[in-house]
Amino acid sequence: MAGTLLFIHLAAAAIWVGGHLVLAIGLLPEALAKRDPEPIREFERVYEQLGLPAMAIQVITGLWLARRLLPEMAAWMDWSNPVARTIDLKIACLAATLALAVHARLRVVPTLNADRLPLLGVHIIAVTTLALVFVWLGVCFRYGGV
Predict the structure, then answer these.
(1) How many Cα atoms are found within 13 Å in the side-chain-facing hemisphere of 58?
(2) Are 82 and 144 in contact (CB under 8 A)?
(3) What positions does the domain Copper resistance protein D occupy (predicted)?
(4) How distant, in Å, are the alpha carbons of 34, 46, 78, 103 from that of 30?
(5) What is the rounded CA–CA span in Å between residue 36 and residue 33?
(6) How far apart are CA 134 and CA 21, in angstroms?
(7) Cβ atoms within 10 Å of 129's Cβ, excluding its own
(8) Contact by Cβ (8 Å): 21, 128
């Protein structure tokens, strides 16, 4: 069961991280250079259908995996435990990702134009960086946590 759960978590992570790397490295630089938000809008329209469910799957499976490592959620607050510290840092990354997503959805995307594209670019780079931090923290579990 644990292996299947981890596989599902990693497959969803591959979708999330890969999509954001494509966006940040493949589409954003050209969109910024041309001052054209349309390629970003089109990517988001298509990617949302896969990326958002992938994130939801990661949250569910991530919490499930965390409970397997430390069954008592109160133990997650024990920063003397490297596994608890890693769980907490992943939760902090999730909170930051959600805050950026909500801000982008409510404040940036509705008024997106060529002038506001750099602000969206900051969001894209931040979410992509957080996605890579998620991966690094996940690898840290293999070595006992951070």
Answers:
(1) 23
(2) yes
(3) 43-135
(4) 6, 18, 45, 23
(5) 8
(6) 13
(7) 14
(8) yes
pLDDT tens for residues 128-146?
A: 999 999 999 999 999 999 9
Which of 48, 39, 42, 41 is CA-nearest to residue 19? 48
What does the mean pLDDT of the chain come to? 96
Distances (CA, A) of 96 to 28, 56, 60, 93, 133: 21, 15, 17, 5, 12
Give the mean pLDDT of 85-102: 97
Burial class (CB in 10 A: 0-12, 13-18, 19+), 44: buried
Tell me how far apart the alpha carbons of residues 47 and 15 are, in angstroms, rounded to a whole number: 9
Where are the chain's structural domains? 2-142
Percent above pLDDT 70 for the chain: 100
**Whole-prediction pTM value?**
0.93
